[in-house]
Amino acid sequence: MPDLLLELFSEEIPARMQAKAADDLRRMVTDKLVAEGLVYEGAKAFATPRRLALTVHGIPARQSDLKEERKGPRVGGPDAAIQGFLKATGLASLDEAKIQRDPKKGDFYIALIEKPGRATLDALADMLPVIVRTFPWPKSMRWGERSAKPGALQWVRPLHTIIATFGIETEEPDVVKFDVAGIEAGQTTYGHRFMAPAPISVRRFEDYEAKLKAAKVVLDPQARKDIILADAKQLAFAQGFELVEDQVLLDEVAGLVEWPVVLMGSFDEAFLSIPGEVIRATIRNNQKCFVVSDPKTGKLTNKFILTANIEASDGGKAIVAGNERVIRARLSDAKFFYQTDLKTKLEDRLPKFDGIVFHEKLGTQGERIKRIERLAAEIAPLVGADVEKTKRAAHLAKADLLTEVVGEFPELQGLMGKYYALAQGEDASVAAASEEHYKPQGPADRVPSDPVSVAVALADKIDTLVGFWAIDEKPTGSKDPYALRRAALGVIRILISNDLRIPLAEAFGHAIAGFVSQDNAHVRKGVESWALPAESVRGALSSSFDAWTAGGVRVFVSDRLKVQLRDQGARHDLVDAVFALEGQDDLLMVVRRVEALGKFLDTDDGKNLLAGTKRAANILRIEEKKDGKAFDGAPDAALYSLDEEKTLAKAIDQVKAEAGAAVAKEDFAAAMSAMAKLRPAVDAFFDKVKVNDDNAAVRENRLKLLNEIRAATRAVADFSKIQD
């Protein structure tokens, strides 16, 4: 079957746009092919700094013929309806229509429309120019004489040539005939800008890729990455060093070159007095170069690795010298910034935060630091942290945001705070908290473990959640401008990874109190909208499960925990079942209950008890709705007439005692084992006992007994939330 080759050759395409552009090209073309009834076998797109390319193989040579029946108006219907039917179907008269007999609804006309399929070459000629003109570049431009005319082509950079060929492997392909803004599709492209600028004529993808390689262009981005990484590692290894790998930088550099040539340069050893992260950020951000470390010490060396786009006649000496000159100047600036920062103590920077707005409704950055400091001190005893060290860490944690180095390299926030804190003689835990309180920033990021860092990190994230929740800036759909989902997941991961028992209701209550004590009208109004008692808000509450629940934060954190546990293979409905228990805000205990519950429900006892419990709950729901009351009193043992009732009642009492004791000791596996003892009694009860007895007193007593089943299982979870 025929293949399509498409290339759009232009001026430089920004590296950050290339991967998405290649994917957009593949998606747009293949979606259009399928819409035209042209199912293909495979497609792959490529991008270099100067071209987007696509190959689609296994496309039919022409569309299939279409046969369609279109229902028309009733026989004898209005003339306007009949004329509209004829026009829409292309029939000359009703003589060309069939009549469909329908004894019930009456006879009506049917048009049999046959539409012959077009040649794929013609379909491509129609669809490809539309795709080029509507390509979704995030930024585009017009150029040349045509730019002032209506409908001028807009592209990321000036578009020069288009290749579009279609045909089977054994024959000369056809050129798809179309033009866009005067650029006609053909078979000509160009190689490397400097090393092979002559035009190249191509036929199909195989010789296109091969001829480009001969013309010093590596088409596949992954191949360019592999070349850069392998050559950089080998170059470093040859001199006894080790490449500091950087996937993000590798992706970017591969988008800057069509023919990667890896070279090594050096800088003055005196610059190694700067923290390694500053050196790396300087070299990475300004020159897109990799740094090199000494495998014996793990520290950076005074070498760097660059990727050129040309095989220079001097072996790259001039290119290396140029990069060394720029890096020397940039490192001089970085060293000056670092040494200047060291002259000012972190705490001396803090007054400036009082004039910096964190959020118009949440106050200044200075006010936020005071809240975090207060909240961290409340959390410290709960995580085993020294209170005074925690207060000091929270006091200084944000100070590096006003330093010269962080101003130049924002990605070093926190890390530089640690260096500056150590330089001014702060305790190691206090210094570490400057860096670690931002963590974890993603699923792959490490979780702080030092108690001081944990307390400050939790305070920072909980203050964020409470504040933005109170002013109704909650995440919606895919939008989460204040990273509240990340903050919630951070709280969850910190607690679970460190096996920490923290009542979050209390922590959130302290956070609200911090805003209230600062007389923040916006947060006060938001909290009051949660329908809490006014006195609890005014009283600078220190603990409030009501606030934790009423604000909806509990549900939000629960949902984030479901995501976390689902990623680990747990069922989200089990999280619901545990969170449904009143007063449940200890995430570590939730996780342990979920784990035990999941194992229990995988057993026959667990599955059958779940079925029996749900059956009891369903009967109760129906009868409670019918009677308009709950059957929540203790059953009367004197009304038991059947052995199965007595056995169930006895089993419930035993399970309540055993499960309750196990839960109190936080032995959830033992609690589940105790619950399993209910199963035979529940099975026998439903097998032998008629719940809705004719005797009203007996019926009510049996319904109360069913309620006891529900109450007994709630020692570990709300079974009604568990899916079958």
List the helices and strands and how they pair.
Blueprint lengths: L2 E8 L4 H21 L6 E7 L2 E7 L8 E9 L4 H11 L8 E3 L7 E8 L4 H14 L25 E9 L6 E2 L3 E2 L2 E4 L1 E3 L8 E3 L3 H10 L6 H18 L3 E2 L3 H8 L6 E6 L9 H12 L2 E4 L6 E9 L8 H26 L3 H4 L7 E3 L3 E2 H19 L3 H10 L7 H5 L6 H9 L4 H9 L14 H20 L13 H14 L6 H14 L3 H8 L5 H5 L6 H6 L2 H15 L4 H8 L7 H15 L2 H24 L15 H22 L3 H9 L1 H11 L7 H18 L11
Parallel strand pairs: 7-10
Antiparallel strand pairs: 1-3, 1-7, 2-3, 4-6, 5-6, 7-8, 9-10, 11-12, 13-15, 14-16, 15-16, 17-18
Helix pairs in contact: 1-3, 5-6, 7-8, 10-11, 10-15, 10-17, 11-14, 11-15, 13-14, 14-15, 15-16, 15-17, 16-21, 21-22, 22-23, 23-26, 24-27, 24-28, 25-26, 25-27, 25-28
Task: Please tag this protein with its features.
724 residues; alpha+beta; 5 domains; 7-stranded mixed sheet; 4-stranded antiparallel sheet; 28 helices
Tell me what the structure shows.
By secondary structure, the protein is of the alpha+beta class. Helices cover 50% and strands 13% of the residues. It contains 28 helices and 18 strands. A hairpin with a 3-residue loop joins β17 and β18. α22 crosses α23. The protein is flat, with a radius of gyration of 36 Å. The model has no long low-confidence stretch (mean pLDDT 91).
CATH architecture of the largest domain: Orthogonal Bundle
Q: In which range does the helix fraction lie?
A: 40-55%
Molecular shape: flat
How many discrete domains? 5
**CATH class bucket of the largest domain:** Mainly Alpha
Largest sheet: 7 strands, mixed
- Uncertain segments are none
Distance between the termini: 49 Å
The number of distinct helices, counting runs of at least 4 residues, comes to 28
| Count of strand segments | 18
